[in-house]
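Here is one chain, start to finish.
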Amino acid sequence: MVSKKPTITRAPTFGLYGEPPESHPFFIHIESIKSRSNTYNWEIQTHIHQNLNQIIWLASGTINAQLDGIDFLINSPSAIIVPALHSHSFQTNNEATGSVLTVSHDIFIFPESKTTSSIFENLFMAPAVTKIAHESNDLFGLNNCFQILSAELSRLKDAESFITSRLAQVICLIIARHPKTNISTPHTGKNSDKKITDFLLLVEKHFKTEMKIFEYAVSLEISKDKLIRTTKLNLNKSPIQVILDRRIKEACQLLANTNSSVDRISQISGFSDVPYFCRQFKKKTGLTPLEFRKKTRQPI
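Its structure:
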C-alpha cells in the first residue's frame, strides 16, 4: 500500500494578517472580524502565525474557513481555534460579526509557578471549532468579555496589563469548557469503533511525548492487542504508524514554516533520534527533511 505524500506548501508568515511577524514576547490584540476582512475584500488568504495563537469569535453569520487544508462552513455562534504554526484562511461577508483575538503564549504562563495551565495547552493543542449553544449562559458572557477587552486595549498604550491578560484568559477558559471539534482528528465513519476516535484524540495530545502503546491502551481501558486490532481494522495502520504519521505531519509544518534546524524539529515533533527521524521522514515523503524544506519554499 502506497502512503499518501504530504502536500504541505509554505504559507506566508505574519504577525497580524498582512503585517510583519510579531517579536514581542507578550502580545494581545483584538479587532472585529469586519475590520480586516473588509480591507482584503472579505478574503483572508492562507497564512500562519509563527508565535501567536488566535481565536476567531463568530457572534453572527457564517465563515468559510480552511484549517490545515480542510474546508469548513462554520455557523455562529462559534469559536475557531487556530494555534501557532497552523495554516488557515477565511472567506466571509459583511453579515458576519464577531472578534479576532490574537495572543502570544506568554499570557498563559503564571509568574508564581512559571508553568502554563493544562487548560490553555489543551485549548491550543490543534485547530478546532467550538460551537456555543444559543441558550448557553456563556454566550452573553463571551460577547461581554470580547467587548470589554476591546475597550481596555483601545485605551492602553501597552497591552501588557493585569486586566487585559486576565480578560483574555477568561475568554479562553469559557471556550475551553465547551466541547470542541478537533479538525486534525480524522473522521472514521459513524459505524467505526468509538475507541478509534478516542485513540486519535490521545495521539493528538501526546504524540510529541514518549508515551508507549500499552499506555494508550490503558488510557482507553482496552488491551494492547485490542488497540492494535482496532486500528488495523479501521485505519489499516498500526498504532505506532498512526503516531509516526502525526509526528511526520508536524515536522512537515515546521520545515515549511520555520527556520528551525532538522535536529530541533526532530525533537519538537517527538523523535528522540535524528537519524531515525530522517529515515522515517524520507520513507513517508520520498524526500529528506532538507529536500522537503527546499521544495516547499520554492516560489510558486
